[in-house]
Every structure is written in C-alpha cells, then in structure tokens.
Amino acid sequence: MAKNVAQSATLASLDQKLAMAKRCSHEGVVAGAKAAIVATIATAIPTLASVRMVPWARANLNHTAQALIISTAAGAAYFIVADKTVLATARKNSFKHATNMEA
C-alpha cells in the first residue's frame, strides 16, 4: 500500500514537472517569435534601403542575398531569445521550488 502511495506521488510530481517544462518552452517560443518579428523588421528596412541607394549593394546583393540577410537575423534572434527565456523561467521556477522545500 505504501508503495502505491509513493508511486502515485512520484507520478504526480512527474506530471507537474512535465507541465512546468511545457509552460517554460511555450513562453520561450512566444518570446522568440516576438523577437524574430522585431529583428525581421529591423533588418529588412536597412537592407532594402541600402539595395536601392548604395551602388555596391545594388550590384552585388540579389534577392536571395537580401532574403538570407534578413532571415539569418530573424533566426538568430529567435533562438537567442527563446533560449534565454527558457533558462530564465526554469531558473525562476527552480528557486521557487527550493523556497517551497525549505518552508
């Protein structure tokens, strides 16, 4: 009987940890998407403007190069912000869990 109680407590704890991990990753995805949108706009405007105004850029940056510049900045922003958000949320939750254990 005691084994079943301990096992159900372990499963409940595991479910709680899984739910917390899903929430942390979802927050990371949302924050990363927002950062990617901002980075896309912040990169697209100067890239497209320079292709129209700078002779070297007009001669050397075709549509593929422009898209690569913009998408690289967006992808980098997404992964950096998503990673930092997931780590910050996990750190916050681990400290919260540690203070609950001490009390």
How much beta, percentage-wise? under 5%
Largest sheet: none
Q: What order do the helices and strands follow?
A: HHH
Low-pLDDT runs of 5+ residues are: none
Average pLDDT metric:
87
> What class would the helix/strand composition place it in?
mainly alpha
Amino-to-carboxy terminus distance = 28 Å
Keywords:
3 helices, membrane, Enod93, transmembrane, Early nodulin-93-like, transmembrane helix, rod-shaped, mainly alpha, single chain, 103 residues
Describe the structure.
This protein is mostly helical and 103 residues long. It contains three helices and no strands. Helix 1 runs antiparallel to helix 3. The chain is rod-shaped.
Helix and strand arrangement:
Layout: H1 2-53, H2 55-60, H3 63-102
Helix pairs in contact: 1-3
Task: Describe what is shown at a glance.
The protein has 103 residues and is mostly helical. It has 3 helices and no strands. The chain has helices at residues 2-53, 55-60, 63-102.
